[in-house]
């Protein structure tokens, strides 16, 4: 045991502890409310699978790995006698409005995502460390470069936030990191490279149809071996990846048409548009990366230069990683719909580029020794710039404004009165109020309610950008002309509660 502990690099352990420390508090954020739009449905599907005793999710917007993780956790809880309600431990009222009856169960599922995020950081560390070691970079620089590359993910607010949800993006990042680590082992002809590549690509397909994860593996074999042996090894990788994909998404064998239809429906969704999250994808994603972890964008530019200034293993590694980064970013950029979470499976590859390229440009010799130290110090500082934002995520994800809005309604609105709630609003007891739910209040401009709740994630999309959403913004202004603002809460995303300007005949205005 002591011998094994001695083999653990203290820098790698420090990165893992940092990643865990930033993410652990977030697994309880907002509970028992669940405000992520995808998480409640994902959990419900996984619990239904466990209840029905099947590995087929019978829904294929995403492939099945995440659902199987949830189903496995459900079976584990039930196996030790902890009840998990068959309805999915979730009561879903509207988009982004749900309530869990099983906090411990949801926390346990989220913890799996946190562990996947920590493992992703360690895979990036291992890939960078071993490449530099094989390329002959001095020991101290190789260790520092690996630790800084892994730290860019550990402190990334985007990666940190998405680790705390039962959604596939964090597992997509893990799969990409595993594929790239396997590819770097193939380049060095190290053991288990074929196995890691097959598992990584199979998981990437099984978690989010990430076909681009196969490209760096193909390139790694292409630049390493062109003989018959290399072709046979690549065929074994393909077979393993296909087997993993079938295990995670058995519907591809039993219901292939349904799987293809689900994939096509998601592709159509991303091409047709999503109100408030569409247009200008290239600039949007570049800005999101710049805000999240600016070092990664700069490192990508450095890596492009390093392609022409390095050779050997370093150059081949950069070619392999770019074989994923470029196609994946182009795929995101051509889509009409854009969500920043789509960058989570891209950031491990950018981190590997940063760790491999930056130290390789300045050899540790002669008069450049001082320059190298200055560059290393600057890189370390830049890598940790986002840590403050990551450490401050809890209040934003906790969305206390929802709790405050619900408390205001409970205090000022009598029971059994109609209450209209937009998506991403507070959870209200459906047994106490006559709830009117809609995605956007602009969908029902004539709504009549004792209280109308507007949210930043719904109404705010249009009111913040009236130039691009003139019609919807005008509808919201008309609605707010019939209601008056009674309360506003900003502990998280803002939520506003409106009441009628003229109270119903024979009743008292809410809140008076």
Helix content: 55-70%
**How many separate helices?**
23
What low-confidence regions span 5 or more consecutive residues with pLDDT below 50? 506-512
Taken from the alpha-carbon principal axes, the silhouette is globular
Name the strands of the widest sheet in spatial order.
5-4-6-8-7
Mean pLDDT: 90
Largest sheet: 5 strands, mixed
Structural class computed from helices and strand pairing: alpha/beta
Radius of gyration: 25 Å
Q: Span from first to last CA?
A: 68 Å
Q: In what range is the share of β-strand residues?
A: 5-15%
Find the count of extended strands (DSSP E, 2+ residues).
8
Keywords: Cell membrane, Glycosyltransferase, Membrane, Transferase, Transmembrane, Transmembrane helix
Organism: Catenulispora pinistramenti
EC number: 2.4.-.-
Transmembrane segments: 65-84, 105-128, 140-158, 170-187, 199-222, 234-253, 293-310, 317-337, 343-362, 374-394
Verbal overview:
This protein has 512 residues and is of the alpha/beta class. Helix content is 62%, strand content 7%. The chain is built from 23 helices and 8 strands. The strands form 2 sheets. The chain has a 5-stranded mixed beta sheet. Strands 1-3-2 form a 3-stranded antiparallel beta sheet, with helices on one face. The longest helix is centred in the first third of the chain and has 33 residues, at 103-135. It is globular and about 80 Å long. The termini are far apart. Mean pLDDT is 90; it is low at 506-512.
